[in-house]
Amino acid sequence: MVDFTLTDEQKALREMAHDFAEKEIRPVAWEHDKDGSWPQEVFDKAWEVGLMNTHAPEQYGGPGLDFLDGCIIEEELSWGCSGITTSLGANGLAAAPVALGGSEAVQAEYFTDLTENRSLASFCLTEPDAGSDVSGMRTTAVRKGDKYVLNGSKCFITNGSYADWFTVYAKTDKDAGHRGISAFLVHKDATITVDKKEDKMGQRASNTATITFNETEVDARYLLGEENKGFKLAMMTLDRTRPGVAAMATGISRAAFEMATEYSKERVQFGVPIAMHQAIQFMIADMATKVHLSRLATWHSASLLDQGKPNTIESSHAKRFAADSAMEVTTDAVQVFGGYGFIKEYKVEKLMRDAKIMQLYEGTSQIQRLVIARETLLPRRASAPAAATA
Ligand code: CAA
Span 317-326, mean pLDDT? Predict the structure, then answer.
């Protein structure tokens, strides 16, 4: 049965997240956007109400929410500010490879630290010369006795300046391409430096930094999964987290759609509110459709995960469609505002700047198309036929 009717618990979660976005995120979002400052006060409140580490298992102090629940929350928070939401949710991205590949003892240590000590974690995959092409990474991990020694730099790392833990991908066999990459859980120490904080076009409240590992020693028990199997761990992680990005993109689209709709009812031109003009009505209609379909694709890709089913193609469908839609919807929202949309006072321009990163991080829209094309033409796994999965 296909049914996306939310349970009472999910409705309550959505209401709680929306309330938080309205009262704690939106009032400060534009200030943090302006000066690119770290929203510590929002973090503190999110910890208090239980909106941090929603993915963390119950036995380690987390709420153990499933993927669909996480997406419902992320859409609401992102409606408030996607930059702040990116920072609040970064622990989830960093934790996925630990949940997939960490031993029970490592998971207990890590998740308990996150939930009890309010620690932060970052996911370190991208490098200056290895963005879309993950296997081109240069960071190395050399085994020395019961330790690995890491050297190299990772860029565009969300929360990098504040992280206590890093999930790091590095080459353990330089000549083996994607089959020579391993994943590690690394605790912050003096050998790890934060080299650069990026000054970004959008999502300015999220911290984005370059992190360098200089002879960083990591105990072998922090190897996640098997040696040289880290590439697959990264891909499995992204299958699990791209629905969350799609949910955030949906939240941005919804915010822009709501602002444009309200404005179109107030702004009078040619003697009537501009909402009376068909040119504007069609833009509003297209925005509404894009928000609706983004959410459906997002929820579908997340619910497959909750059922323990593969979701590679569905997660790329959702991420690609919701991200591209967010760019289109926010651009059209600025258009509905006309010249005022171009002025910071009207706030809709922030959404357009924020939307851009949705088409870039956690795999560009072009990479999502590559995944979709490959899964369609040469499916890696048995799944419902692509045409029947909508
Ligand atoms: N699950 C499990 N295994 C997978 C998989 C998946 N979803 N996708 C691929 N694999 C496996 C393949 O079966 C293959 O296995 P074998 O070794 O057995 O042959 C192996 O992985 C290699 O697969 P490909 O040949 O498809 O690999 P590729 O080099 O062509 O790369 C890619 C594929 C889709 C382009 C991939 O590199 C990719 O997703 N790139 C984008 C990276 C990305 O999203 N980066 C975002 C960084 S995180 C971030 O942005 C967050 C932040 O904080 C800013």
Answer: 98
